[in-house]
Predict the 3D structure of the following.
Amino acid sequence: MKYDALQITGAVLTALATQSVIRLLVDHGDTGLLGGLGPGFPALLTVYAALTTVGVLLTGWSHSRAKAPGRRN
């Protein structure tokens, strides 16, 4: 159950961060969820790309752990 929750969290993080990256690339002024922090375009793009990567890795890792051989439900 723990890995299922982590997988959902990773998927949501991936979806939100990817949407923010696309929004930022299309319209540099639309900074998304982290716009209130105040960094410029390159910093926000880097943060959103890093969050996307973390979300993908968390989802993949938790999926592989949830499907581990010998795991009882």
